[in-house]
Structure formats: structure tokens, C-alpha cells
Amino acid sequence: MTNSNVTADYRARDAAHHIHAFSDMKSLNAEGCRVVVRAEGSWIWDSEGNRILDGMAGLWCVNIGHGRKEIAEAVQRQMGEVSFYNTFFKSTHPPAIALAEKLAEITPPQFNRVFFVGSGSEANDTVIRMARHYWTSLGKPDKTVLIARHNAYHGSTLGGGSLGGMSSIHSQGGLPIPGIHHIAQPYWFGEGGEMSPDEFGLFAARELEKAIDEIGEDRIAAFVAEPIQGAGGVIIPPATYWPEVKRILAEREILLVADEVITGFGRTGNWFGSETFGIEPDLMPIAKGLSSGYLPIGGVMVSDKVADVLYTAGEFHHGFTYSAHPVTAAAALENLRILEDEKLVERVRNDIGPYLQSRWRGLADHPLVGEARMTGLMGALELVPNKASRTQKFADTGKVGTIARDISLGNNLVMRAVRDSLIIAPPLTLSHEEAEILVASARKTLDETQAELKRLGLL
Ligand SMILES: *Cc1c(COP(=O)(O)O)cnc(C)c1O
Fold first, then answer.
1. Which helix (H) or strand (E) holds 9?
2. For the whole prediction, is pTM greater than 0.90?
3. Ligand 1 within 6 A of 287 CB?
4. Which pLDDT tens digit goes with each residue over 196-216?
5. Whether the CB of 231 sits within 6 Å of ligand 1
6. Which CATH superfamily is domain 34-64+345-456 in?
7. 283-303 pLDDT, tens per residue?
8. Fold annotation for 71-341
9. Which atom of ligand 1 is nearest to the CA of 296?
């Protein structure tokens, strides 16, 4: 069969039976999706024979790059020892023990315990129940409200989707659940108005203070936030934001939850985004880079402050069949070994991070780019109709972003569109040469997008 016959066959079968995550199936099936048949290092190959640079590391997760044999071997070894056993009934197994111990070592010092789950969504669902259970155990059952932010992403289960601030998710299936309150996000480029970034950072942080004062500290369990919003569009808060949040919470009895599902495991140039921003969370959801996506596993890091209470509060009626699944734990352990042995976190901080950041920021001179930002290896390009004005936006939000995203794929680079921005989060193993290819391809995409927008009369 020719490549196009092979692709047509895959597409027809996929269209017949497979409902994709976050997809409009009717239009997806009309268009036909990309069939990824091989992945290695920073690259994926599709069934048409295209070799494409994976600027999104899968879905923010393949931190060590694709196709590492060591993970496959660790998984196979563990499959031969214990492929599955539960942790409900007074039992454990070596990979769960070793991974919990390793996480206690590499996470910030307040964390010495972990609750394992299967995904980032389950981690955030666990946070909701655990934070409320914590306060009830302290004799404060009225502290149930979780404050989160508009345009945050914390997963798509009932709990995670409710905690997140995506109106598209809230519009389906009866979300959000009660007891979640959303406040402004620290998105200066999009919402900063006439304020300077520093002024806006203080303003956005003080929205938290205002919400606490309105709702009442005695009713609030936790503030939940991503150190950098990922799916919301790589929103890097102004420098004043996190210090002000820290001050506000230091004066009050409210848990801080840092959702590190994306920012964990080296993405921002430290092991955890909390270190990059100098915050000390009480709970920390993790997933994605924990196993570099080789197998699904997540967790909630539980600080000593919270664990000390939970451990005297009897049974926590919560868990999943696959909590601490031995094979996923073995994959995660090997992934952490690779991150450590190959000094990939240091590499993001001192080498490839600064290198790609400076090249990426160079794209800001393009007529279509209003801002080019990046921390560690997560970045965004804000596409605007008029560089001189931050507030002027394209009509029909998302249209231009999607056009640019499709052009980028045609140029063999995966970038993701969020509204009218393009975002990247490549593997931490990205070479300098690949960084050059990425930036050259992004620039070509900007040029072609500009020409296309002119052709369509959108510029
Ligand atoms: C991806 C993500 C989640 C959800 O993780 P899943 O494994 O998809 O359930 C939660 N929080 C953040 C910050 C994420 O990026």
C-alpha cells in the first residue's frame, strides 16, 4: 500500500470507532487526523512519512524525549516481577516504596509523603477531598471552599474540571461542582489593561485577598493554582504576583496547592515550579513529567503539616485501583533516574533553557507577534493584528491561532494554539540544533500566517 492508502485506512477505522479527547468529532473526521506511527527523541513520524519536531513533548509530558529503551526495559522487568497488585489491603510493593522515597527526596523539604493516582485530574480530585478532609479533621468542617482562577486547567473530571476555570468545560455536564470560587488570572498581556506588569501582578494577587475577605477565611479550604498556567496559554505571572500571594496566605489559615502537573520535573529549570517562584505549597499535584508520559501515573505530594493531621484522622476513604500501580511506578522511577543522571533539570536552567529563550524572544520582532515569552522550556507567542496595541485583538478569537497552528504542522513543527497564541513545551533533551530548527520553523510559520491572513482579509 502507498502511504496515502495506509493513512486513509487508519483514518477510516479511527473515524468509525474512536471518540477523541477534546475534539469535535464531526469536523475531525471530515478533515482526517494525523496518524503518529513512530517517535524518537524530539521527533514524531506520521503515516505519510513526515518527520515532525515535537514542540509540545507529546502533551507537556515527554520530558526525557521519546523512545527511551531504558524505560521499556524497566517496565518489562517489573512486568516479570509484579505486574499488578493493589495497595488497599495492607499491602505494598518495592516500586511504590522506592518511588515514594525518591519523590520525598527530590520535592521541596516540606514534602515527605505522596498519595498516588493515575492522572493529573485524579490528583486534583484528590486535592479537593483531602483539603476538605484536613480541615474537618481539625474541627473546622465549614472550611470547604476552594479558590482557583479563571482559565486555569486542573483536568477534566468533575472535580478537576470544576477547579479549572475553563468556561468551555463548565458549559457541559453540570460543572462546576459547588464550593469552587474563581478569581482573576495573572495574564498581563491579555488582561493587564493600562497597568504595568508589576502593577497588574499585585492587582491579580489582591483579587485573592478580596475573595477571601468576601467569602470569609473561616469558609476557605485552599487556594489552588498552577505556578505557570499551561493549557491556559503559558501564562507566566508578573514578578510581583507570587510574592504577594505568599504574603496574603501567610496572614491567613488557608492551604496553598501548587498544581505542578506541567511545571514539575524540570519544565521551568528547577525540579518544581514552586522553587522557580519561591512558594511553599501544602499540597502539590503531579503527573505528566513524573513518568515522561511513558505510562499514566500521578500523585499528590502531601506536606508534613497536612500529613500530620491526616495520619491522626483515621481512614481517608479515597483511592484508585491503580494508585501506585507497580509498572507505572517502575517507569516513573527510571524516568527520574534519567532526569537526574543526565542532569536534564540543570540543562534547562543553564543551557538549553536560556538558549531557546533568547532565540524565542527574538521572534518578538515579527510584525504578527505582540509578545514572545518563555520560562524554562515553556513558551508562548501572542499573535496580534497591530503590534503597537496590546489591547487590539483579532475578531473571532481562536481563528488566527488555528490557522497558524495548521501552518506550523505543515512546516513540520508541532505548536499548539491557545486562543490566538502559539505555545511550545519541547522535551528537555532538545538539542541546540533542534532549537534552531524550531525557531526557524516558527518564523517561517509566522511569515506564512501573515501572508494567509492578508489573503483572507484578516490583516
Ligand atoms: C494536564 C493537566 C492536568 C490533568 O492531567 P490529566 O493527566 O490529563 O488528567 C491537571 N493539571 C494541569 C496543570 C495539567 O496541565
1. helix 3-17
2. yes
3. yes
4. 999 999 999 999 999 999 999
5. yes
6. Aspartate Aminotransferase, domain 1 (3.90.1150.10)
7. 999 999 999 999 999 999 999
8. Aspartate Aminotransferase; domain 2 (3.40.640)
9. 7
